[in-house]
């Protein structure tokens, strides 16, 4: 390493070093323990944070990446880094960090399973009734027979667009394949609100916009008062 | 670098912690995240030779070694998502895809965002075993 003369050392560097607290010291220590490549990533993430055009979303992503680089927290049963996605999904209810929410998560997952089972059952019935093979359906909706098979065996959850394509291809209503296709999503989001008791940014903005709207400027007929008995 | 061929048993799909945080930011509701996760489980059957992953569109980012899969909006998901993933198999006998994170489908995806996810892939290559 090239040595520097003391007189060449930036003056404000000493002041910065004296002002470092224990948390910052830990951060620097962790940074120095990273490999050169990871240090380079961390530096580039800080550059993203400091850039004037960086959006809030990208700022959050950069912070998450820095935290991931500096604070390695392997989860038991998932290896030294990251998570096995399938295992994490299967354990979502059983190992949820908030014990009081495990039953809620389990109920949600059961609901997803039930929706997929109903869809598979209904699709199979309609294919039988209309004498359409999986290959024929796949061709009509522009995907593979293997994909149709996976949806029938509940290995893969169809997207909404796929359900609509299948309905059109089979000349049935989408709700014949997936009951309450639109309503279920709305009801679930309402029930989730009462569980979570938090608003998304969009909901908060919509409420704020509605509450700050000026009163409607149209005449109304005064309602007759109710006569008291 | 050639992609490790999935061996008929499907890919192992792994996910890094920042990706979970990305999805939490896009979908604060657990139900929506769980629907997204169900869609992403299809990555087990991703093939670079097929245009769709079951019924999900995907494409590759030339030069970065990263791939994108698109989960579309409608019904259960208020917004579509672009999920970034790449292939990294420390054990050649266990072909593995890594989910690096995601952005809303209507968000821009330019050099800065590509660099963010590329940075995550560097960390994965460094730390994954």
Q: What structural class results from the helix and strand content of chain A?
A: mainly alpha
The chain-level mean pLDDT of chain B equals: 89
- Classify the beta-strand content of chain A into a percent band: under 5%
Can you count the helices of chain B? 3
> How is the main sheet of chain B built?
6 strands, mixed
Tell me, briefly, the overall form of chain A: elongated
Radius of gyration based on Cα positions of chain B: 14 Å
Strands in their spatial order, largest beta sheet of chain B: 1-6-5-4-3-2
- The string of secondary-structure elements of chain B, in order, is EHHEEEEEH
Low-confidence parts of chain B? none
The percent range for helix content of chain B is 25-40%
**Count of DSSP strands of chain A:** 1
Helical content class of chain A: 55-70%
What structural class do the secondary elements of chain B suggest? alpha+beta
Radius of gyration of chain A: 29 Å
The count of helical stretches of chain A stands at 12
Number of distinct beta strands of chain B: 6
Arithmetic mean of pLDDT of chain A: 81
Q: Runs of chain A with pLDDT <50, length 5+? A: none
Name the beta content range of chain B: 25-35%
Please outline the helices and strands.
The complex is a heterodimer of chains A (229) and B (129).
Chain A: H1 11-18, H2 22-33, H3 36-50, H4 56-70, E1 83-84, H5 85-90, H6 102-130, H7 134-141, H8 145-152, H9 160-170, H10 174-177, H11 183-196, H12 201-211
Helix pairs in contact in A: 3-4, 7-8
Chain B: E1 12-15, H1 17-26, H2 30-40, E2 52-53, E3 56-61, E4 66-71, E5 81-87, E6 96-104, H3 111-127
Please give a structural write-up.
Chain A has 229 residues and is an all-alpha fold. Chain A is 62% helix and 1% strand. Chain A has twelve helices and one strand, in the order ααααβαααααααα. Chain A has helices at residues 11-18, 22-33, 36-50, 56-70, 85-90, 102-130, 134-141, 145-152, 160-170, 174-177, 183-196, 201-211; one strand spanning 83-84. The relative contact order of chain A is 0.04. Chain B is of the alpha+beta class. Chain B has helices at 17-26, 30-40, 111-127, and strands at 12-15, 52-53, 56-61, 66-71, 81-87, 96-104. Chain B has a six-stranded mixed sheet. Classes of the chains: A mainly alpha (229), B alpha+beta (129). The interface between A and B is large, with 63 and 57 residues.
């Amino acid at each position: 390493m090239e040595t520097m003369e003391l007189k060449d050392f930036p003056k404000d560097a000493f002041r910065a070093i004296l002002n470092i607290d224990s948390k910052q010291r830990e951060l620097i220590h962790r940074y120095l323990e990273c490999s050169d490549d990871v240090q380079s990533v961390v530096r580039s993430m800080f550059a993203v944070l400091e850039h004037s055009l960086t959006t809030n979303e990208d700022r959050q992503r950069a912070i998450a990446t820095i935290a991931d680089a500096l604070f390695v927290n392997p989860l038991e049963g998932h290896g030294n880094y990251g998570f096995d996605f399938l295992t994490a999904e299967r354990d979502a209810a059983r190992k949820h960090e908030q014990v009081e929410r495990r039953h809620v998560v389990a109920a949600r997952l059961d609901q997803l399973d039930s929706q997929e089972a109903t869809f598979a059952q209904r699709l199979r019935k309609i294919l039988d009734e209309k004498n359409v093979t999986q290959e024929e359906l796949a061709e009509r909706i522009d995907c593979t027979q293997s994909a149709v098979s996976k949806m029938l065996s509940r290995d893969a959850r169809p997207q909404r667009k796929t359900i609509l394509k299948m309905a059109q291809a089979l000349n049935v209503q989408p709700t014949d394949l997936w009951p309450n296709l639109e309503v279920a999503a709305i009801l679930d989001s309402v029930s989730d609100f009462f569980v979570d008791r938090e608003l998304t940014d969009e909901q908060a903005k919509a409420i704020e916009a509605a509450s700050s709207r000026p009163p409607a400027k149209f005449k109304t007929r005064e309602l007759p008062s109710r006569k008291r008995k | 670098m050639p992609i490790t061929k999935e061996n008929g048993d499907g890919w192992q799909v792994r996910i890094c912690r920042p990706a979970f945080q990305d999805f939490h930011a896009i979908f604060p509701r657990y139900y929506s995240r769980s629907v997204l996760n169900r869609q992403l489980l299809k990555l087990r059957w991703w093939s670079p030779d097929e245009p769709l992953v079951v019924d999900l569109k995907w494409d590759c980012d030339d030069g970065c070694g990263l791939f994108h899969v698109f989960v579309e909006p409608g019904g259960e998901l208020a917004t579509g998502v672009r999920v970034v993933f790449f292939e990294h198999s420390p054990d050649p006998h266990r072909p593995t895809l890594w989910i690096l994170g995601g952005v809303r489908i209507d968000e821009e995806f330019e050099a800065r965002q590509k660099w963010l996810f590329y940075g995550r892939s560097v960390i994965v290559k460094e730390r994954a075993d």
